[in-house]
Amino acid sequence: MFHLPKRPEAILAGNDLSLIEILKFAKSNNLSIPGDIAIIGVDDVSFADLFNPPLTTIKQPTFEMGKMAAELLLDKINGVGKDSKRIY
Questions:
Q1: In which domain, by residue range, is 46 found?
Q2: Over the range 13-24, which residues count as b (16 or more CB within 10 Å of their CB) and which as e?
Q3: Is 68 domain-assigned?
Q4: Out of 31-35, 41-45, 47-51, 75-79, which region has the weakest mean confidence (pLDDT)?
């Protein structure tokens, strides 16, 4: 991406591992954050506030998302519709 004639202005890191690799790349290529490239992380990494300026992160409530997915799946299995009561 950084070899393109028009380099990206921002990158969205989909997870902590991607974010770490992007940060390593930025450091090794002397890219300023957010001057040269804006970075947004997903996962609400605990170390985001250590940067100056702090990184923007998006928190994903993974436990709640998994719980809701399981409930929806159980509703489908049990044939529960929108207006029905859950039996579990």
A1: 10-77
A2: beebeebeebbe
A3: yes
A4: 47-51
